[in-house]
Amino acid sequence: MSSPAEGVPQVGGSLAQRRGGPTVLRIVLGTQLRRLRESRGITREAAGDAIRGSHAKISRMELGRVAQKERDVADLLTLYGVLDPDDRAGYLGLAKRAGTPGWWQQYSDVVPSWLETILGLEEAASVIRSYQVQFIPGLLQTPDYATAVASLGEAQGSLRDINRKVEVRLRRQQLITQPGGPKLWFVIDEAAVRRPMGGHAVMQEQIRHLITMAQLPHVTVQVAPLEAGAATAVGGPVTILRFLEPDLPDIVYLEQLTSALYLDKRADVENYMLVMDRVCTAAPDAVASMRFLEQLLD
After folding, report:
1. Which residues neighbour 26 within 8 Å (Cβ) at sequence distance 6 or greater?
2. Whole-model pTM?
3. Which CATH architecture fits 13-98?
4. Which CATH class is domain 104-297?
5. Distances (CA, A) of 180 to 15, 139, 177, 240
6. pLDDT (tens digit, 9 = 90+) per residue, 120-137?
7. So where are the chain's domains?
C-alpha cells in the first residue's frame, strides 16, 4: 500500500473537521490535491483524463473555484496512490462538506458569483482589515444605511431585490458577534462619514452605530481625515483577510461596482499590506477617531 509522498502533509480524518464554510474548504481541499499531484509528478492533463475531464477542470478544482465531486476526488486519490482508508476518508469527508451549499446560496438571485467568495472567506478569517473610501464598511452598516447603498446599485432593480441585498449584508454582520469571530480593523475615509447617505437621520443613526461597534474589544475603527492627503489616496476600497488555516494565504479583496478582484500572490499582498499600514498610520488612533465621530454627531 502506497503512502503519501514525503513533504505532503499526512491527512487523516481530522481534515474533515477544518474550520470554515464551503468556499474555504474547497480551497483547502484543492491545495491538498495539487500537492499530492505535484509530489507524484503527474500532469494536470493526466489527472483530467483520470476523472474524464480536462486540465482546465483540474485547475479549477485545485484553485477551489468549483466544488469537487466526491467521485472525482476518489479517482484522483487512487491515481495519486492514496489508498489507506483513513486517509481517503479525510479527503472525501472534506469534499462532502465543501459541497454543502453556503447560507448565501438562498440569495443567489441577488448575490453574484464574484461576491460569494468573499462571503465564504469572511467566515473563516482570523483578521479582516479594511479601508473604505466612499461608504461605511458593509460589516458596520445599519439597515437604513445599507438600504440607501443597495438602492444606488439597483437603478433598475425592484424593492424586493434591494431588501434581499440588505438581508445578505445583515447576515454577514453576524460574524462580528459569533464566538471565535475575526479581529476587525477598519479605516474609514472622512468623506464617507460626512456623505449624507439616506438623509440626516440615517447618518446620525449610522454614526452612533459606529461608535457602539468600536467599543467591542475585537473591533478597531479609525477615521482618516481629509487632510491626510496622499497617504490615504489608495484609489478604492481595500480589504485584506488573514487566516489561521495554513493552506490559506492572505488574500486581498478589491471590490468594484459589478465585479471584484482576489489577489493572493505574495508580492501583491505585501504591497497592499504596506499601503494598509500607511493608511492606518496616517489616520488618528481609535480614541481620537471616536472623539471626532462624537463631535460630528453633535
Report:
1. 64, 65, 66, 67, 68, 98
2. 0.82
3. Orthogonal Bundle (1.10)
4. alpha beta
5. 19, 16, 9, 18
6. 899 889 999 999 999 999
7. 13-98, 104-297
